[in-house]
Specification:
The complex is a heterodimer. Chain A is an alpha/beta fold. Helices cover 32% and strands 21% of the residues of chain A. Chain A is built from 12 helices and 13 strands. A 6-stranded mixed β-sheet of chain A has the order 7-8-9-3-10-11, sandwiched between helices. In chain A, strands 1, 2, 4, 5 and 6 form a 5-stranded antiparallel β-sheet that branches. In chain A, strands 12-13 form a two-stranded antiparallel sheet. In chain A, helix 4 packs across helix 5 and helix 5 packs across helix 7. The radius of gyration of chain A is 21 Å and the shape is globular. The two termini of chain A are 38 Å apart. Chain B is mainly alpha-helical. Chain B has one domain: Orthogonal Bundle (MetI-like fold), CATH 1.10.3720.10. Chain B is built from 12 helices and no strands. In chain B, helix 5 packs parallel to helix 8, helix 7 packs across helix 8 and helix 10 runs parallel beside helix 11. The chains are: A alpha/beta, B mainly alpha.
Chain lengths: 335, 307
């Protein structure tokens, strides 16, 4: 049984212009000790899907799913009280902006101790002991002194380490990291990722890494789920994904990596993610896709099998060639 | 050249000595006392508080004791003054100094209790309005709009007229008048803080709504609330004096400054000190509190802080 099982998750937001579907029929599973990366550009519903799992969406959102289960418990029917007991203890989350994720009014030690007190019921000296252990584990020098530091006295990298320490405080089974390195500079990014992965290995937790940095994905993830406009469009283990992307969007994303560029100019994907009012009728990627045909404009694409990376496409690619496309000649992806 | 080397050695020794960083209170006081006017205000206010607390020992007479043979005696330094009554006596022979000293107690008590009451109620209502979407928020905020749309003194008069004139009712009325400012302030800053990541992080940690309201968000909204409180005290004192002047506040024998002004109105020509002295007392008190409030705002506002 997987640790986290999501099937057919849909999130709708009530907005001024009517219902807006931010997440559309997403299915995912995460096992114990596994690292799943969710990639996609801004607005593709990656964060919203994970916020829905944690129950952190505002009241304007409607969440529906066939199954939304964590460790054998149905998250949809949980009462708020039960959810609070579960979230934070067995499921933890790390945010994008470390500088604003810590409460500026309280010391680091107090904030780490809070969840230890509530979820594990440790005494004051035990909490202090465990907080020092945690700060030590995330690589903060002189942890005893840092306990009485306020968030504004820490740098971004230090704050993110503290956030990781808080996330790990109750030995969770699943950590969701929402772009944990976006706000940090490159050298710190590598350190934080390394730290996350090594701690994840040690404690055998599941890790969901939300990111739009393909470099981060290649370095850390085991399995990758590519999202576009609220839909999961492809899912593959990391090596085959980089080798042979099956969805044209994934192929275009990978082709846009500077490391893979061959010509003078970096290839890019024209256009933007469709919003509330310019949603294409059938395939959501069709307006930006170089393989789009009349069929893509009229008929919603089917979900392909495991061999084609569960791609959501009429003409999944194999080694850059669209299968079943009426005019496959000369349409190889630049990469 | 030993004389020349001495100072150099001394500074070197001073630099070696580890300098502890200033504690939060010391740092606050350093920022605060940078504003000279605020420091003067603080000293004046300290003096007033001292006088109010030890009124029983400082006042030469009881505030309601009447010396019938000494009515309308001018202050001691004016011709015809009496050394026994430093600031003179009023129309029925009560010692002005004693009355002013006991009046300070009343005025500060009114100011403080109004601020505490409207702050406490305002914080609760404001947080509820910020955290409960839909009708609770609408009901609270529209009610506050209604209160704000009536001129404040008029509203206080109406409330006192309904529940009857007395000191306690004055406090209740002024509390209601000042409530909307707190509710709006708290709601605005809570709404702003609520969207920050650390609040979501607290929810991830399993915190309930009440805990997030009072423990996570409220401490981060306190700075503007404290400043508002400091600035409201003086307004509350003024408003209480105005109500007293209109005969709707503290009732006659009690030495409330506004009531003193009102009862001495007719002697403005013949015995001006009876009117001037309580007026000056109000002026000094309000000025001192406003100066302290300004200094407080400057010291608490992180944007105006140096380092």
């Amino acid at each position: 049984m997987p640790l986290l099982e999501i099937s057919d998750l849909t999130v709708d937001f009530k907005t001024g212009g009517g219902q807006f579907r931010a997440v559309d029929g997403v299915s995912l599973t995460v096992d114990r000790g596994e690292i799943l990366a969710i990639v996609g550009e801004s607005g593709s519903g990656k964060s919203v899907a994970m916020l829905a799992v944690m129950g952190l969406l505002p009241w304007t959102a409607t969440v529906t799913a066939r199954t939304l289960a964590f460790d054998g418990r149905d998250l949809l029917t949980l009462t708020p009280r039960e959810r609070r007991r579960l979230v934070g203890k067995d499921m933890a989350m790390i945010f994008q902006e470390p500088m604003s994720s810590l409460n500026p009014c309280f010391t680091v030690g107090y904030q780490i101790g809070e969840s230890l007190k509530v979820h594990l019921g440790l005494s004051k000296s035990e909490r202090r002991q465990r907080s020092i252990e945690l700060l030590d584990a995330v690589g903060i020098p002189d942890p005893e002194r840092r306990l009485s530091a306020f968030p504004h006295q820490l740098s971004g990298g230090m704050s993110q380490r503290v956030m990781i320490a808080i996330a790990l405080a109750c030995r969770p089974k699943l950590i969701i990291a929402d772009e944990p390195t976006t706000a940090l500079d490159v050298t710190i990014q590598a350190q934080i990722l390394e730290l996350l992965v090594s701690l994840q290995r040690e404690t055998d937790t599941g890790l969901v890494l939300i990111t739009h940095d393909m470099g981060v994905v290649a370095e850390t993830a085991e399995r990758v789920s590519v999202h576009y406009a609220g839909q999961k469009i492809e899912e593959q283990p990391v090596a085959p994904l980089f080798e042979d992307p099956h969805h044209p969007y994934t192929a275009a994303l990978l082709a846009a990596l500077p490391e893979r560029a061959t010509g003078k100019r970096l290839p890019s994907i024209p256009g933007v993610v469709p919003g509330q009012f310019d949603r294409p009728p059938a395939c959501l990627f069709e307006p930006r896709c170089r393989f789009a045909t009349e069929r893509c404009r009229t008929k919603a694409p089917p979900r392909q099998g495991a061999i084609a990376g569960f791609a959501l496409c009429h003409y999944p690619l194999t080694h850059g060639r669209p299968i079943g496309h009426p005019h496959p000649e000369g349409r190889e992806v630049a990469a | 050249m030993p004389a020349d080397r001495m100072p150099a050695e001394r500074t070197a020794a001073a630099m070696v000595e580890p300098k502890a960083p200033p504690g939060p209170f010391a740092a606050f006081f350093r920022d605060f006392s940078e504003n000279r006017a605020a420091l003067v205000g603080l000293i004046l206010l300290g003096l007033l508080v001292f006088v109010a607390i030890f009124a029983d020992f400082l006042a030469p007479y009881s505030p309601i004791e009447q010396f019938r043979e000494f009515t309308r005696i001018p202050p001691a330094w004016v011709e015809g003054g009496n050394r026994a009554f430093l600031l003179g006596t009023d129309e029925i022979g009560r010692d002005m100094l004693s009355r002013l000293i006991f009046g300070a107690r009343l005025s500060l008590f009114i100011g403080l209790s109004v601020v505490v009451a409207s702050m406490a109620v305002g914080i609760v209502l404001g947080l509820v309005a910020a955290f409960a979407p839909g009708w609770p928020s609408i009901v609270i905020m529209r009610a506050m709009d209604v209160i704000l749309s009536v001129p404040s003194l008029l509203l206080a008069i109406v409330i006192v007229a309904i529940i009857g004139p007395s000191l306690t009712n004055t406090i209740v009325a002024i509390t209601v008048v000042y409530l909307p400012y707190y509710v709006r302030l708290v709601r605005a800053s809570a709404m702003q803080e609520k969207t920050r990541d650390y609040v979501t992080a607290a929810r991830v940690g399993g915190a309930g709504t009440l805990r997030i309201m009072f423990k996570t968000v409220l401490p981060n909204c306190m700075a503007p609330i404290i400043v508002q409180a400091a600035l409201t005290i003086s307004n509350a004192i003024l408003e209480a004096a105005a109500l007293g002047f209109l005969g709707l506040g503290a009732q006659p024998p009690s030495p409330e400054w506004g009531a003193m002004l009102a009862s001495a109105r007719e002697f403005l020509q013949s015995a001006p000190w009876i009117v001037t002295e309580p007026g000056l007392a109000i002026l000094i008190t309000v000025l001192a509190i406003n100066l302290v409030g300004d200094g407080l705002r400057d010291a608490l506002d992180p944007k105006m802080r140096r380092s």
